[in-house]
Each structure stands twice: as C-alpha cells, then as structure tokens.
Amino acid sequence: MASRLHQKAVEQQAKLARRRREEEEARQQKEAEDMKSMFKPRSFAKKKGTSKLHADTAAMKNHRAASPPRRDSPLMRAGSGYQSRRSISPGPSPRGSRGKRASTEVSRRSLKSQASEEILSTKHTVDLQEQKNKELGVELPDVMAVARSGGLLPPPPSPRYRLAVVGFTAPGGPSVNTDKNKNGVRYDSVPIANGVVKAGAACDLFDYTPEDHDAFADKVEAYDGLIVRINPGQLSAPGTPPGSQVAFDELMMSLVAKGKPVWSSPAVQKQMGAKDALVKIKDLSCGLPDTMAYYTGEELESGFKQTCAFQPRVIKQNRGSAGEGIWLCWLEGKDYCEALGDTTLDDSDQLKLMEMNDNHVEFHTVREFLAFCVHGPGGEAGDWHSAFPGKYLEGGKEVGGQLVDQRLLPRITEGEVRMQMVKDTLFAIIHKQPTDGGMSAVGGIAKYAFYQPEAPEFTELRLKFQQDIPSIMSAMGLRGEPLPVLWTADFIPVDGHVAPYVVGEFNCSCVGISKFGAACGPDKDLGDVEDEDFDEGTRLTDLIGLKAVETLDEMHSS
Description:
It is globular, with a radius of gyration of 26 Å. It is an alpha+beta fold. The strands form four sheets. It has a six-stranded antiparallel β-sheet with strand order 8-13-9-10-11-12. Strands 2-5-4-6-7 form a five-stranded parallel β-sheet. The chain has a five-stranded antiparallel β-sheet with strand order 16-15-14-17-18. It has 14 helices and 18 strands. Helix 2 (52-66) packs parallel to helix 4, helix 6 (189-198) crosses helix 14 and helix 11 packs antiparallel against helix 12 (366-375). It has helices spanning 2-34, 52-66, 74-78, 108-136, 143-148, 189-198, 213-220, 244-257, 266-273, 277-280, 297-310, 366-375, 459-475, 531-557, and strands at 42-43, 82-83, 105-106, 162-167, 202-207, 225-228, 262-263, 292-294, 313-317, 326-332, 350-355, 360-365, 403-407, 416-422, 425-434, 446-451, 487-493, 501-507.
C-alpha cells in the first residue's frame, strides 16, 4: 500500500510541476505585455482571497469544518508523534482576533517566485492526501487541514532519516513556559516537524525528561539527528532538577561526537551566541578588525583606556539580549588622539555613555565606568541610573563573563539589518530602524520593514556574507559542526570597510518563528494565526526541513 501511494505521489508531483511551468510561462508572458512596472517594489502583503493559494486554503478550511479531524482517525493515529505529558488537540480552534500584517516593500519578481513556490507546495500536499483518501477508501481530513490545525503529519512511506524535535516543559506553568500554546507544546515545533516530514524524513516530537534522563538518553540514540526547541533558561528554571542543563548539554555533545547532528548543539549556541564571536570573525569581511575581548578587569582597563582615547567605542556585555549592558562611549571635553596607542585615558577623564536597551544617557569618569563594569554600582563606581547592575565579568570566561570592545559605527542610526538564515540560505531580510531619533534598534525601540532575499537594496551585503558563510564555523572553532538550521545575523552599516555592513550579533539559540507568534499563549494554537502568516511561516519551516535532510545527506556522503 505504501509503495503504491508513493508511486502515485511521484506521478502527481511530476504532473503538477508540468502544469505549474505552463501556467508560469503564460503568466509571465501576460505580465510582460500588460505591466511595465512589474519590477518596481511593491507591498509584500497580499489581499486575502485574491490568490490561488488562498482559494485552496479556503476550500481546505471548508472541508475541515464539514469533517473535522478526529483523534481516533487513521491519519491522526499515523501522525501522533508527540510523546509528552500533554497531547496535541487535532481539532480546529476558534479563530481569534486578527492582527493587521505589516506592508513590506519587495520586488515583483520576488513575489512571483514566492507565490509559485507556495502554490506548488500547497497543492502538492493537498493532492497527495486526496490520493491517499481514494486508496484507503475512507473519509479522512486532508493533509493541509491536519497541519493547519496543529496536527503532526504521518511519516513518508520510506523515510530517508528519522529525526525528532525535542522540547521541554519547565515547572511553573504558562508564566515560565512563555513559548507554549494551549496544548503545552512550543508554538512553532509542530510546523518544524511537519517541514521535516515533507522533506522525506520521519519526525517525532517529545520532551526532555530530566527526572528520567537515562531513559531519554536511550530513546534519542534511535534518531539520526535532533532539532532542539528549548528556550534558554528553561532547563535552569526553579523546580527543575539541579544540573538539568549540564546533563542535557553533555548528552547532546555526546551525540555530536557520534556523528549525529544536533541543531543547534550547546557548543554552537555558546560560540555563536557569545559576544566574543565578533572577535573570532574580525578577519572576515563581515567583521571589524579592531574588535577586542576582555575577560578580566586588568584587560578591560588596559584595553579600553587605549581604544577610547583614539575613537568612540561600543562596550558589549555577553549576557542579555535586549541591549542591556551595551554602552556607547564618547570622550567629553577632550580630543581623540591621532592613532591607536598614542595615548591612554586617565581615571578622571569624562565619558558620555548611552545604554542601548532604552537609550538613556549617563555621564561618568573613566574610573567610575570601569568600576561599574567590574563591581557594579556604588562605592568607587558611584550612582547609576541603569536598571541593570553591571558586573559584566562576574564568574569569569567559563560562565560567560566577558566584554567586547568595538569602534562605534555612527551609521547605526540608520538601523540594523537582520539576515534570517536557514543553514546557508538567506530566507528573509528585516530592517530595524530606530524610532524617535534614537541610536538603538533593540528592545522594541524600532520600526520594522521586511524584504525578500533578492531585494536590490541589500545585494552587496548578501553577496559579501555568502562569501563568508563557508568560513564562519571554522572561525568560531566549530569545524565539523553543521550550520544551524535557523539562525540570524544582525548587521550595522559601515564606511571605509571591505563590506558595506558588519555583524553586530549572531543568534542561534531557539530562534522563534514570528509568523506563528499568534499561536503562542495558554489559550492559543495555530488556528489563531492569519492565513497569510501561516503560509509564510510554513514556507520557512518547509525550508528548515529540507536543509536538515540536506545536512544529513552531506554528512552521510562524506
């Protein structure tokens, strides 16, 4: 039965591909004749109901309403891969309130490519399920209805690999597990697992169980790779067994040592997520050559007194993710020296300081700033208005105590450009521009514009970064580890450099999929996500699945 279904699916896919090519050629010819402005930027948002994709989605939802998935149906049994204390509800959810999708400027060509990919993927999935229904001779909800309502798709007839998406539910309920939906599952985990299934691999979904670590360790040995979707800090939450994070990290690294990929492994998260990653890439085009890292008070004092005497600087702590402990530093009442090392600052020299979490400004002496960075406010550091306590080197390098020192790039006022990456493929570009004349685009003090990867405004940045990508893992000391399947790089514009932008930060620690954000909450699920957001999020998770399987193919062929 499975082989017959697979053969029919292959035939149907080939038929669909031919039809789509014919339709695309006809559409391109018509648009070339009728629309001279076809390559001008236009809004990313599409009107609901105007595309074939949304006609398919509307038909799918009507089918789901007439015959909702049952927990005991054959398809739901086949796809019930989630093995946690909580089960996934297969039925549809009441539609919640709808947020208005932001309009985004992209090229018409990008829109055409995107729409073609989405329609082909959606129709193939629907047609495949219709074939299954006919073969089985029973009334079944279609595949898209299952995925749309949060169900896990059944594995392919002959899966190429076996993967699992691993989560964790910390004690404390929704206030601690802020990434979960109403079923107790991380809001974007099921779509990621379904993307893996669509790529031809089997994929299960289950939680890490620190209270039964050995049983979990035995279980994961059966898988070819793991995609970890655990928010930073959850394994150290109050009520979690002591040492859970360390035990989990050691287990993941033991799998990596056996040649099984973990996305992203503890080593990758630590190396790429730490601020001193900027030091490790300083010789790539995406890095700044005058980037330094300090791990002790003595290194900080010696280095900062030289660098800040030469030019305005940015001092970045390693901890935090919303701009806290990131200080823009200017000399007050004193000229900068001509060259680095010509002179050093005195303890009594005055500094103007701006913290990027809220753009507030403080004035302190060099000695007060250095004391605050090492010991926190009070005493030698004096009084501070920062909501955070300094002590950035506390605990030493082993536990993330570090500061990174870079030149201040004045064009940061133009905003940061986030490259959303799936392994080595650019999926989207997000421009974060400070509001109200601020310097910082972090902490929500920004307006956002979304672009397709081919956006002409960022062509040079994209090409330069593509050249650097093959060298990034080795530069981090991670040779042999695969690139994360979902990660981001935030860029700041720069003048007089080999590239137009340089990296200000990497992130690969359970990067969220914002298009599914409406599914996050104790009373939410994927039924609360706008159709267009669901389509775009699914396009991302399908690419994640393809890249995970691609990585396994590469590892097995080497």
